[in-house]
Every structure is written in structure tokens, then in C-alpha cells.
Amino acid sequence: MSFELVVAILIATVPLLVIFPSLFALTTWLERKALARIQNRRGPNKVGIPCTRIGLFGLGQPAADGIKMLFKEDIVPNGADRLFHLLAPILALIPAMLVLCFLPLDFSFVAVWDESIAKDIKAVQGFALDGAVIFFFAITGINTLSVFMAGWASRNKYSLLGGMRAIAQMISYEIPLVLSAVVVVMMVGSLNAKEIADAQMGWNWYVFTPWGLAAFIIFFIAALAETNRSPFDLPEAESELIAGYFTEYSGFKFALFFLGEYISMFAISGLAAVLFLGGGEGPWVAVYPWLAVGWFLAKIFSLIFVMIWLRGTLPRLRVDQLMAFAWKFLLPISIINILISGIAWHLREQGAAVTAGVWGVSLGILYVTAVGLNKLNRANVKPREYKYAE
Amino acid sequence: MSFLGGGIFSGMAVTLRNFVGSYFDPDRLTTNDYSWRPEGQLPQSAGEYPREEGEQLSDATTVTNYSRNFPMLLHDGGDNPMDAIRCVACQICERECPPQCIYIEKDYGEDGKFIKRPAVFDIDVSVCMSCQICVEVCPFDAIVMNSQFELSTPNRFDGLLLRREDLLKSNGYYHRIHPEEAAQRDQRMAEEKAAKEAKKKAAAEAAKKKAEEKARAEAEAKAQEETGDKEEEAQ
Amino acid sequence: MVAPNYELIEQDGLETSLLEVSMGPHHPSTHGVFRMDVKLDGETVVDLKPVFGYLHRNHEKLAENMSYLANMPFTDRLDYFNSMTNNWAYALAAEELVEIEVPERAEYLRVIMAELTRLVNHVSLVGFFVNDLGALGTPLMYAFREREKILDLFEEASGARMMCNYFRFGGLRCDVPAGWLDRAREVVDQFPKFLDEYEKLLCENEIILSRTQGVGTLSRELAINAGITGPMLRASGVAYDLRKVDAYGIYDRFQFRVPYGEVGDCYDRFMVRMLEMRESVQILKQALDGIPEGEIMGKAPRVFKPKPAEVYGRVEGPKGELGFYLIADGTPKPYRYRVRPPSLINLTVLRDMCLGQKIADAVVILGSIDIVLGEVDR
């Protein structure tokens, strides 16, 4: 265990542990300001530099919220299971932070000042797993367990009901999530995140293909449901009967749940950027290799902005409509998507005309399937005309 | 939009337009930005506000020239406001106030005679509901509505009980906060005063005329008596 | 876990249990302090009991101890969103007692204020309705931006934004300031733009369509039998509007239509209110064009002491028929003062509408009835 290796490991992991929580703070600030601007108001703008009157557009707000959460009293309900009450938020956070490691962020530009460290960093970097995508899905499954523990350990029938609903939602949306990722994995032939990102070099992003676009949309919708964001935020719903599985949490444990939710938002956006948006690819990357990190983060942030935008626009789905949407709509489309992409992969070397024909046919099939399933499920839901009396 | 998901897309377009528009068009914003007070200034308790008459304690308020909050008593200027106070303690507002938040005591001089001003005039603004009925029923235009709202005080026993000195404001202050209403009120008072003066003058003239006529009639009667006497004497 | 008060039902040898939940007075989505005791079988509502009275302020008995004029500010606080129409209903009842004639300009201004109040109420309702559906406040903020403009108009006319206390027996308290009519014209002219934006945001949204259509259906017969009035009745298919039936004030001089729905579900109630806002804009334009100059108060008696009589004055409030039943006995104070609260009477069918729906729908149905607890509890 040489000194250089230790430094390499630290350089590989510490930025992750420092950058992403601060990005989390930035995301909470961004969400509050963006939601406020959508609603025609200003959002927090008074909390800036402490002990002065300078409100730096409210950038001190996440720090103030964090300090407030730390100082709150930690209340555990009487008769609740203390061990699981403590374990649930921790178990919500650890998988989220763990899957951040596979993201293909190339920090080797740090090592330009010392060549000897560079190759060690490349070895340690990003846990270069051959099965990164499977690793991701396996670890985010633990999230479901933490929700169950939170609901059970609160000794509150409303939290339990909320937790059950949340688990049902999360496991039913995992299937379209995985199936849409399978499309890209099939096209590349590997599960390694770095190879998937490299296969999209030169603006060959998978989102520009019909099956990739459909897979991206399905992935994005399922990602919203996995992280309990609106319009699928039934477990956190305020105007519903139940305030959700984390009703009984106060203080720092509540903050840990939120941290876990936002970091899993990051992680899923990161996976979407890697699979569909070419992860790290952008103008001038060949000239300045360190710009890849910037482009990657920019893509993650734009996806997060779309998530915030959807949160500000759409109302909530009811629980039976949510489940019907997953099982009767997203699942058939994602299966058909896999078939189409498989056929397209076999025909990929046949020339431009065949490719264009395949694209047209696949677009047609996907659109017709979507419309048909929609009509099947919600046949008589449409805007109405009204009459007037004089 | 009629394609699948079209409603959601048009909703998102509306939201985006509002998002971008809120940066460029300040009229769009629903909320006011409450700006900072001058350094060190706290909301003052009711007994010592405002430091200067007519001073608003914060600048980005939503108080307009028409808003009403709690009543105030008017005086017509001068060094000692109590000399020019318009209220004569007739207690009509105390009777008509719906939540009964006004308490008045008349002022008596040394000889026990009633001086036309209140000794005690208390309004409990924690009860007052700003209905303005006291203003409507006052025959002397002595009580009108103020528009200051920063009355919070740490004293919970009588911090919200406004006494006569707290309520006294000058007519000039009234003109500053409600210019149109004050101008109308002054005009009406001037007209009424002129009408009363005219009536008094007319009554005085009529009385003078009547007195003259009466004197003339008496003189005539006396003259007739004298002529009658003279006739009797002549006979 | 301690067992809550379950009721066990046996069916085919399997035991199920009902969950009894009280959506208690403190709740972010019931409009005011209102409680619903709901019995749930899984997600389906099996029984529902509304409990109110948390905001009872003894309005009707208090009124027996105060003069007629002193009651006017308290009517503001009945349905605190629509203070102007509450005032008008009370003024109508009292003017019938004493037979005062209201001048033309005052009648026009009364109609303008009432229609602006209708806009304020419907705009708040559609905002809160979509907020209950879960849209996290965005449509609510757009709706409240329009409401702020109208409340500014109210403040200029009467001095207060919500508790206006503007109507008097025989007219209004004071005239509107100079330039108010032009400002009102501006607000009214750009209101349809907001309605168009709102419709684009909401009325084709698939999520809203699937959550409100077919939910909380109220049949025509039940609506008529239960005494429902207002937009709820019109959504169930009965085109009954007091502005056309009674033609109080000068409503017979204005051209407007009355929209009505057919199915009577939450979507119909929502859309009927959106369409009524457009009709109110039409009435406002006509009234603002035709308003004459003149007096504001008619000849009211110095002391309001009506002869013994009983009278019922009603208006088409934004929530339904708001009526005041007064019994006068020759003294300056009323003998009996009774308010017909439209929100309370519309609430009586809540249970029938909610049975068989999901618990999430119960919140939506309550939002579509449009209750205000100030009126329900008085």
C-alpha cells in the first residue's frame, strides 16, 4: 500500500464525498428558487453571508436549513422500534452515495502535476466496474427496504400505509426502469459505464434514435417515480390523508432522508446522462479533457431542472392510476421497445436507406402502441363541451 | 394539442413562460419584497410611535392612499393639540361601535361644568375590527381612520390599548395619508360652516328686521295714542 | 402496534377490517377547520361523517343585540372571501323592510362589485382545487395574482381588501374615487388572458382529466331534493340562476348566459366555474360602459326602526343562494336574524358523493363543493 496509492484513492473518493453533498445543497436552493419563479414569486433571497445584510440571492439558505435541522430535537415515538427508526434514514442515504462512485467522472486531470500518480488514479477511478449498470440497479433496490423500515418503525398506522404505498410504487416502476436501460446495454454490448459513454462519442447519443428516445422517456418517468418526485409523490403528499412514511422523523434524520432523495436524484440523472446523453461529451472536450466533468454535471443539472419543472406543473396521480400507468402502459411499451431495438441492431450495417426505413417503422410502431394503450386504459376521459341557458 | 401527452406539454410551456417572464416583468410577481429597516430600528410599541408624525416604519409597504386600519382623533394644529381637538366627547361613536372597543370619559372643569373635550379616550385595537362605523356617525369629523399597521408590542397587558395622546394626529397628517378623503372632508366642513354662517346671518337679519318692525309698530301705536289723547284734549 | 378501533367483517371465511380515520380539523387541505370521520375499506370510502362547528362565532344571536347598521360589518365575516355579496344580501333584506329606493349609480356599482367578487371567489376556488389535486401551488399562485388586482380595486373603493363593509341601506357608503372606473376597466380587459392561460395549463391536462372526471357525481334529482344551489346545482344539469330568476338589482338589463353541465362530477363543477368567470367579465364590461353619474345613497331614515314585518332577501352568491331572513319588531334591533348559508346546505350531500370513491377523491370532492367555514359555522 504505497503512499501514492493512498493519495490516489483519496483523490478519487474525497471529491465525491465533498462535491456531491455541496451539489445537494445547491440543488435544494435551485429547487426553491426555480419553483418560486415558476409561481411568480422570488424564493429565498435574504439569507446570504451571515452577520451581514447581503442576501446573496439566498445562497446561504441551505446552510441555515442544515444548521436548523441539526439543532432540532430528535423525537422517537413511544414504543417504536428504536434500532430500525435509526437505521432507516442511514439506509436511505448509503446506497445513494454508493452508486455515485460508478459515474464516469475523469479526475485524472488533477494528476498533471505528477505523472506517477496518474496511472494509479486511472486504476482506482470510478470503481471501473464491468457491471456498473447492474450494480446501480441492485443498490438502488435497497431504497425500498429503507422505506419499509421507516414505515414500520414509526408505530403509526398512517406511516405504515404510506410506506406500503411507497414500496408498491417503487417496485412497480423498477421494471420499466431496468427494461429501458436494457435497450442501451444491448446496443453497446457492455455494462461498463465508461464504455457506454465512450460508445456515444461523436454525437452518436442514443437519445437521437427512436428506440433510444422512447427508452429515455420511459427511463425518465420511471426515475421520477423511483425518487418519489411529483407527479408521483404520493408517499410525500401533503394534502393527502397521510403525510408519508417519514411523518415521525424530526431533526437530522429527516434531513438524511432528504439528502438520500436528492442524491438518488443525482445518481439516476447521472445514469440517464451516461446511458442516453453521451455522458461527458460536449464541445471542446478534445481540446480540454477536464471539460468533460463540466459537461457531465451540466447534463445532470439540466435533467434535474426538468424534474423541478415537472414538479411545478403537474398535479399528483392517484395511487391506482399510478399503478395502472406502470403496469399497463410503461411495461408493454418498454418490451416492444426492446424488440424494436434488437431488430434495429441486427440491421445496423445495411446502409442508409434501410436505416431510415427501420427508424420510420419503429417510430410508427411506438406511437401507435402508445396511443392504443392509452385508449384502452382511459377510454372516456376527454375535455367536454358545455351548454348555456339564456 | 391533441397528441398523447399534449396537455402536459402545453402546461409545461405555460410554466416556462411564467418562469422566464418573472425575471423581466416585475408586475408579474405576486409577492412584495419586504425591504430591510434602517439599521437598529425595531417595531416600536404603541406608546411611542411614530417618532415623527406621518413616518412610515418601512418603505416597501402595501399601504395606499385609501387603506384604513385603526381610528385616530384629529386636531387642527397649534402648539397644544388638546386645545384644537375636534372631539367633544358626545359618545356617539362609543354607542355605535359594533365590538364596543371605545371608552370615553367627559372632561369637567374646576367648577364642575362640562368642557367639550374627552378626558379619557381609549380604543382597544386588539378588539377594533376597522369597520369605520365610528367615522360615519361622528357629527364633528373628529375621528377618522389611520393607515398605520405596525402596532406590535411586547407588552401584552396594555400595549394594544391606544390612549388619547396616541390617537391624536394633526389634520396635516391626515391630508398626507388620505389626500382625497381629507380634501373632501375639509370641503364639506367649510361648506357646512358657510351655510351655518349664512343661516345665522339671515336669522340675525330677520331678527333685526323683526325688532325694527316691532319698534316701528310700537312707535306707531304710541303716536296714535298721543294723537288720540290730543283729540280728546281738543274736544 | 396498538390495534385501532377496527371493525371486523367476515366474508367467505376471510376477515377484513375497516379503518376509521379522522381527517381532523388541522389539515392542510380542508378549507378551514373542518373534520371528516371517514371509514375506509382499504382505499375505498365506506362511510363519511362531516363534523363542523369549530368556527362558530354566534353571529345570529349577536345580531339580535345590535342595531341593523352595526350588523353590516359582521356580514363581511360570514363568507370572508365574498364580503360584497354578503353585504348586498343583507342590504336587500333590510331595504325591503323599510322600502328605500336605491339610485341608479349605486345599483350599477353594486353589480360591478358583486361581479368582481364572483371573479375573486371563482379564481380562488379553481386555484385551491388544483392545489388539492397536488399541483404544489403553481396554479394557485397564478390565480392569486389576478385576485390581488381585484383586491387592490376593492381597497381603493372601500378602504379594506377583504372586510369591505361597503354597502348601506339605500346605496353605498361612498363613491368610488376618480379614475377607479378606468382601472377597473383595465383589470377586466386583461382577465380573459389569464383565463386562456389557465385553460391551457389545466383543462387538457391528462392527469387532471383522469382525476376529476367520473369522481363525485351528483345526480340531478338528488341535487334538487337536497336544496343545492349555485354552481354545484348548475353542474348537475339544472340551469337555475337567481340573477335570471329573481332579477334583483338591475340584472335584467345585462346580457349574459348561464353555463350548465350534464354529468355533475368534479370536472363539471370546475368547468362551470371557469365558464361563469367569462360570463361575469361580460357583465362587468356592460356595467362599466353604462354606469351613469349621480347619487350614491337613497333617502334612508335617520334612525333605522322598521315596522314589525318579516322578510327574506337573497342573492346569487358565488357559492350559491345566500339569504337573510329578518323579523323586525319595531325596535332598532332585529328580533330574529337568520342566515341561509349555501356552503352548509351544499355540504349535506358530501356523504352521498363520496361513498364508493377512494380516499384521495374525498379531498378533491370537498374541494369542488367550495365551502368556507365562516359561512358553514357562522
Secondary-structure map:
The complex is a heterotrimer of chains A (390), B (235) and C (378).
Chain A: H1 3-38, H2 61-71, H3 82-99, H4 115-124, H5 132-140, H6 142-153, H7 157-188, H8 193-199, H9 210-226, H10 252-275, H11 291-313, H12 319-346, H13 352-377, E1 387-389
Helix pairs in contact in A: 1-4, 1-10, 1-11, 3-5, 3-6, 3-10, 6-7, 7-9, 7-12, 9-10, 9-12, 10-11, 12-13
Chain B: H1 6-24, E1 71-75, H2 92-96, E2 102-108, E3 114-124, H3 133-137, E4 143-145, E5 161-162, H4 164-167, E6 168-170, H5 171-177, H6 179-234
Parallel strand pairs in B: 1-6
Antiparallel strand pairs in B: 1-4, 2-3, 3-5
Helix pairs in contact in B: 5-6
Chain C: E1 7-11, E2 14-23, E3 35-41, E4 44-51, H1 59-63, H2 72-76, H3 83-98, H4 104-133, H5 138-158, E5 167-168, E6 171-172, H6 180-189, H7 191-202, H8 206-212, H9 220-226, H10 231-235, H11 242-245, E7 258-260, H12 266-290, E8 309-317, E9 320-328, E10 336-340, H13 342-347, H14 350-354, H15 359-369, H16 373-377
Antiparallel strand pairs in C: 1-2, 2-3, 3-4, 5-6, 8-9, 9-10
Helix pairs in contact in C: 3-4, 4-5, 4-12, 4-15, 5-6, 5-7, 6-12
Question: How does this structure look, described?
Answer:
- The complex is a heterotrimer of chains A (390), B (235) and C (378).
- Chain A has helices at residues 3-38, 61-71, 82-99, 115-124, 132-140, 142-153, 157-188, 193-199, 210-226, 252-275, 291-313, 319-346, 352-377; one strand at residues 387-389.
- With 390 residues, chain A is mostly helical.
- The N and C termini of chain B lie far apart (126 Å).
- The radius of gyration of chain B is 31 Å and the shape is elongated.
- In chain B, strands 4-1-6 form a three-stranded mixed beta sheet. In chain B, strands 2-3-5 form a three-stranded antiparallel beta sheet.
- Chain B has a domain at 63-177: Alpha-Beta Plaits (2-Layer Sandwich), CATH 3.30.70.
- In chain B, helix 5 (171-177) packs across helix 6 (179-234).
- Chain C starts with 6 loop residues before the first strand and ends with a helix.
- Chain C folds into two domains: 7-51, no CATH class; 59-377, Cytochrome-c3 Hydrogenase, chain B (Orthogonal Bundle), CATH 1.10.645.
- In chain C, helix 4 (104-133) runs antiparallel to helix 15 (359-369) and helix 5 (138-158) runs antiparallel to helix 6.
- Chain C is an alpha+beta fold.
- Chains in contact: A-B, A-C, B-C.
- The B-C interface holds B 1, 5-8, 10-11, 13-15, 18, 28, 30, 64, 66-68, 96-98, 129-133, 136, 145, 180 and C 66-67, 69-74, 138, 141-142, 144-145, 148, 152, 155-157, 159-161, 163, 165, 173, 177-178, 197, 200-209.
